[in-house]
Write a structure and sequence with these properties.
By secondary structure, the chain is an all-beta fold. The chain contains no helices and 11 strands. Strands 2, 4, 5, 6, 9, 10 and 11 form a 7-stranded mixed β-sheet that branches. Strands 1-3-8-7 form a 4-stranded antiparallel β-sheet, with no helix packed on it. Strand 9 and strand 10 form a beta hairpin. The protein is globular and about 40 Å long. The N and C termini lie far apart (40 Å). The mean pLDDT is 96.
Length: 118
């Protein structure tokens, strides 16, 4: 079983950049790793995903062109580089993994808070 721990959140100003990390431990192979976010009072939103080899990247419409997902398999870590942050990017960011090839995201981290001030 894989465990996921996010880090890198914080308070930034609009236009700033921030990089989130998702470190995996345990059984670290996953078919996909993704990032989701949830703003207070809103539904969880898909942000980005990447496959086990570093390809297959896909982004939510609201972050395309501003966020980049990548991974370093030697470090068992997936990153989310966020640029040109906006106040509407504020929320708890969760890392998630697909551990069964034909399954959905089934393993989740505890989340890290990102707050973007205007």
């Amino acid at each position: 079983q894989v465990q996921l721990v996010e880090s890198g959140g914080g308070l930034v100003q609009a236009g700033d950049s921030l990089r989130l990390s998702c470190a995996a431990s345990g059984r670290t192979f996953t078919w996909y790793t993704g990032w989701f976010r949830q703003a207070e009072g809103k539904a969880r939103e898909f942000v980005a995903r990447i496959n086990w080899s570093g390809g297959g990247t896909y982004y939510g419409d609201s972050v395309k062109g501003r966020f980049t997902i990548s991974r370093d398999n030697a470090k068992n870590t997936v990153y989310l580089q966020m640029s040109n942050l906006k106040p509407e990017d504020t929320g708890v960011y969760y890392c998630a993994a697909v551990t069964i090839m034909t399954g959905d995201f089934d393993t989740w981290g505890q989340g890290t808070q990102v707050t973007v001030s205007s």
